[in-house]
Amino acid sequence: MEKIIEMKRLDCSVCILKSEATKNLSVGELNILNQNCVDVDFKKEEVIFKQDALSSNIIYLQSGMVKLIMDGPQRKQILKIKKAPCYLGLPTTMGDKINHYSAIAIIPTRACFIDLGSFKELLRLNHDFSYEIIVELCKNELEQFHRCINLVQKQIFGRLANNLIQFSEDLFDSDEFDLPLNRNEIANLVCTSRETVSRMLTELSEEKIIKINGKKIKILNKDMLKKLREKG
DNA sequence: GCATTAACCACAG
DNA sequence: CTGTGGTTAATGC
User: Fold this and answer.
1) DSSP of A127-152, one letter per residue?
2) Per-residue pLDDT for A9 more than 70?
3) Strand C bases with any atom < 7 A from protein Cβ
């Protein structure tokens, strides 16, 4: 029995290559991590954690991509798309006992579940580790503030342009990519209707700013797209 | 008034 | 699931 568990244990040193925070861990601390985390593979559309469920894990995304969704009074709202490597659910696990949003894989995703107690222990033990976690949280907060301004003060072309640029620059590092969401979900992300997204995408295509073929998008005129983003 | 923006409905591939 | 057309309400010259 002990042996099987032993075999299933993972080697966190692999992840060290990716996470700014775990780079700082000593051998002993890494051992704590090693013995208190499990990694899981998720298929597209599988739920990684669910709103209103009890949360007792910090989740580290090793690979893949995820959408964060919150049930609002009117409808479900896509809060953000997150790409590995990153931590998931820091605010939802540290902020309350219960998840305030759900995370769903949008492509095959590998995630590491870290026991909350052990994670807190590492925060106490290693200041450099904690520092990196704080940096990640701060970046997240700034991003949210920008997203808020973007949503509230821009019209839909600006909002859509902003999100297309983010897909290209932050998620795919390419001017050509497959949309990870259907039109309805894009509408939800941009806070508009599905029909409006359709119309605007075809319009952007007619203006030769982007090229669309189903979910495939190619940005042809990034300058123009950026102007749209600025103008709102 | 008239124009613009964008949501909602309906219908067709 | 998507794209398009018609309609409608709100807002701003």
Assistant:
1) HHHHHHHHHHHHHHHHHHHHHHHHHH
2) no
3) 1-6
